[in-house]
Amino acid sequence: MTATMEELSTGTDHERVLLCRDPEAGYRAVIAIHSTAAGPAAGGTRYWTYPSEDEAITDALRLSRGMTYKNAMARLPLGGGKSVILRDGKDEDREALFRAHGRFIESLGGVYMTGEDVGTRPADMEHVGKETKHVAGVIGDPSPYTAKGVVRAMMATALHRWGSQDLAGRTIAIQGCGNVGFHLAQELRAAGARLVVADVDPERVRRTVDAAGAQAVPPEEIYDAAADVFAPCALGGVLNAETIPRLRVEIVAGAANNQLLEEADGDRLLARGILYAPDYVANAGGVILLAGREVLVWDEEVMLARIDGIYDTLLEVLGLAQDQKVPPHIAADRLAERRLASLAAERRASI
Ligand code: NAI
């Protein structure tokens, strides 16, 4: 049986959506290219079990659009794309699977480049790399950079909310003491903040309590913590109709992707007077690192300056939200669309 690539028409604004199959490798994947207006579409490869092919397609559409906005907002000359490989739960040959993925990416001729995402690891990307050069190499752990960006986002949000960006003496509740949460706790401690932390993994809690002098609470209680800022650094969808009424903070700023369970949750936060730092603005440190190291070959100083720039971007988002009387997550999309249009114009002018 031969490998096939089927062009799907989804009725969305995506440039191309491809259903790729290589039965011999046990491979079935969706590669969604949302936009190449600002540059080659960049976005990781997710390896996940989906209830149906339709759900995998929906996920790829949503995630690839998210990458366009995230890259444009960070002013990176990159478009947005994403792949999802459907995991079928049977015996898998990861080398065969990821090499098949690499061959499809190669056949696209550089309009899409990928890297690790949920469910994939460095060895998988090495297999992809045997078939195509359009894959990010091992860049090391991005989480310290992501954490730095989250701190800048928090400072900007604090300035907008309280008239001072100083986090000294503020209490910050961090959900998730994983890679980002751990580094974030240490940065905030150094800035003089008080910390309340939670994680489902007691070992990770202990490590963070020891390193950052944090106070630990059980995972379910983090939403009720009396604090100034809530920093979601674990899972998506944690801001929802059930949790938002429980929050006792004035700011939400954290690293987790897709923090709002649904659009209406952005309005719920606003109605409660809680200022939200849109997730894809606050957590852009990782993608800036990836693009800076792999594509744009920036030195460390330039990269850190770009991560610092998250502060100005967030102030612009919050200013726009205030002027246009919309919640910050809507203002963020509007600013990302503007930035995408100007990146696309620059690119057209340079060709
Ligand atoms: P991680 O997997 O190292 O840490 C997540 C932590 O959350 C784990 O320690 C886990 O035990 C904990 N957790 C899971 N469920 C929980 C619950 N119900 N309550 C409390 N804790 C819970 O992941 P990492 O790298 O720290 O990323 C955190 C979030 O930030 C993720 O949503 C990720 O997608 C996002 N992100 C991470 C970036 C990075 O550079 N690592 C870049 C951009 C976004």
List each distinct ligand once: 1,4-dihydronicotinamide adenine dinucleotide
The helix/strand class is alpha/beta
CATH superfamily of the largest domain: NAD(P)-binding Rossmann-like Domain
How many beta strands in the DSSP annotation?
Answer: 13
Fraction of residues in β-strands: 15-25%
Largest sheet: 7 strands, mixed
Percent helix range = 40-55%
| Cα separation of the termini | 41 Å
Rg result: 20 Å
CATH class of the largest domain: Alpha Beta
- The poorly predicted ranges are none
CATH architecture of the largest domain: 3-Layer(aba) Sandwich
Q: Give the topology string: H per helix, E per strand.
A: EEEEEHEHEHHEHEHEEEHEHHHHH
**How many domains is the backbone divided into?**
2
Provide a count of the helices: 12
Overall, the morphology is globular
What does this structure look like?
With 351 residues, the protein is an alpha/beta fold. The protein has two domains: 4-69 and 79-129, Leucine Dehydrogenase, chain A, domain 1 (Rossmann fold); 143-286 and 293-338, Rossmann fold (3-Layer(aba) Sandwich). It contains twelve helices and 13 strands. It has helices spanning 53-73, 94-107, 122-129, 143-162, 179-190, 202-212, 264-271, 279-282, 285-294, 300-308, 310-324, 328-350; strands spanning 4-7, 16-22, 27-35, 41-42, 45-48, 79-86, 112-113, 171-175, 194-198, 215-216, 229-232, 251-252, 275-276. The strands form two sheets. Strands 1, 2, 3, 4, 5, 6 and 7 form a seven-stranded mixed β-sheet that branches. Strands 10-9-8-11-12-13 form a six-stranded parallel β-sheet, with helices on both faces. Helix 4 (143-162) crosses helix 5, helix 4 (143-162) packs parallel to helix 11 and helix 5 runs parallel beside helix 6. The radius of gyration is 20 Å and the shape is globular. The N and C termini lie far apart (41 Å). The structure holds 1,4-dihydronicotinamide adenine dinucleotide. Residues 142-143, 146, 175-181, 198-201, 204, 219, 233-235, 255-257, 283, 286 line the site of 1,4-dihydronicotinamide adenine dinucleotide.
